[in-house]
Amino acid sequence: MGALVGKRIVLGVSGGIAAYKAIEICRRLVDAGAHVVPVLTKGAEHFVGRTTFSALASEPVQSSLWDEAEPIPHTRLGQSADLVLVAPATARLIGAYTAGISSDLLTATLLATRAKVLVCPAMHTEMWEHPAVQENLATLRRRGVEVVAPESGRLAGGDIGHGRLAAPETIVAAVERALVEPDLRGRTVVVTAGGTREPIDAVRVIANRSSGKQGYAVAAEAAARGARVVLVSTVTLPVPPGEVRVVPVETAADMQAAVQAEALGADIVVMAAAVADFRPVAPAAGKIKKDGGVPEIRLEPTPDILAGLGANKPAGQVLVGFAAETSDLHANASSKLERKRLDLIVANDVSQPGVGFHHDTNAVTIVRRVGDPISVGLRGKREVAKAVLDAAVALLAPRQ
Ligand code: PMT
Fold this sequence. Notes:
The protein is built from 14 helices and 19 strands. The protein is of the alpha/beta class. The chain folds into two domains: 2-179, Rossmann fold (3-Layer(aba) Sandwich), CATH 3.40.50.1950; 188-393, Rossmann fold, CATH 3.40.50.10300. Helix 4 (73-80) crosses helix 6. The two termini are 30 Å apart. The relative contact order is 0.09. Residues 210-215, 252, 271-275, 277, 302, 304-306, 321-324, 336, 348, 350, 356-358 line the site of ligand PMT.
């Protein structure tokens, strides 16, 4: 989550039962490298303790406009923020902010900032649907405030309905999108993820250990940077937030058909999938019976999807391959870069601990046609994705 590193975020918490979820949001933002300054309303303090926030955030909680040590805290908070996030935002808070009433430190900070503001409403369904709340939110949207829509589910008092605070991961993703450099806005990025499955018979397949995590991380990073993403995937993981269309596939042949169709209009294609190199020549229609003895399964090569893309690459497209190696990382990756006519290849030594298949982390060397290789040490797959897309974006021709 590189977008949040060093960013100063004022986390405003107003008084609703969902205030307890703001603790998780605070923790996630700090974990992602943000400097989080919590500002609680008096109402919020009925639901959550100041100590909890002060312990987790980057600075102690602030809640008063009246502090002898700092007479005008709201202007400092508002002016120094990269982003102000209000989660949860009650109907009262939304109403005061819309009307420009600075009755406490949080509303005063909201009025004193020119930073991006994200408001995450949470309230009972009747209040959420009230025209006053909806009209206030429409006004805020018109003024450039981003509203992270609430979800349906369990509400305070056991009621079920619409108005529940969006999930912490949704809110953190919205913060990240708001802060990230939108250098892929207007671009289309095709990403493949997961391992292909080649049928042996009606129930058995030749598969591999790819979890799809690296491909999904590339898709999430591209979407966060404003791209339209087409994610050709053999696995079912949560779809990353943003403009992401998933094309489910199973075999190398499926993946080839999908990628060929989608890659035509793409600015960047990233083949992170582990495509089987061989498949059974003639998969059995039914289940092969055990009592027939050990079957002999003849294999044939699968199509090399990436080499096909390299041979027919439209002008201006950036084509990125991955290389899963266990030795001679650089030499093997460079030869694939040449053979498949790629712009970049991302080599991972999958024999190393924490690297490659299934892990949440990866370590890669990005080999380029021009320039030294870029070494990315062991880190989260999202950060690896960021480095890969940074290298790909650098090769995109400027837009006319
Ligand atoms: O999914 P994860 O668990 O997160 O693991 C990530 C990963 C290890 C799968 C990923 O980082 C990775 O290395 N993907 C590529 C794996 C692979 O197939 O490597 P390869 O060296 O065999 O293939 C080189 C390139 O050609 C790859 O981009 C591959 O997608 C492509 N290829 C390979 C064979 C084939 N028939 N068609 C292809 O397009």
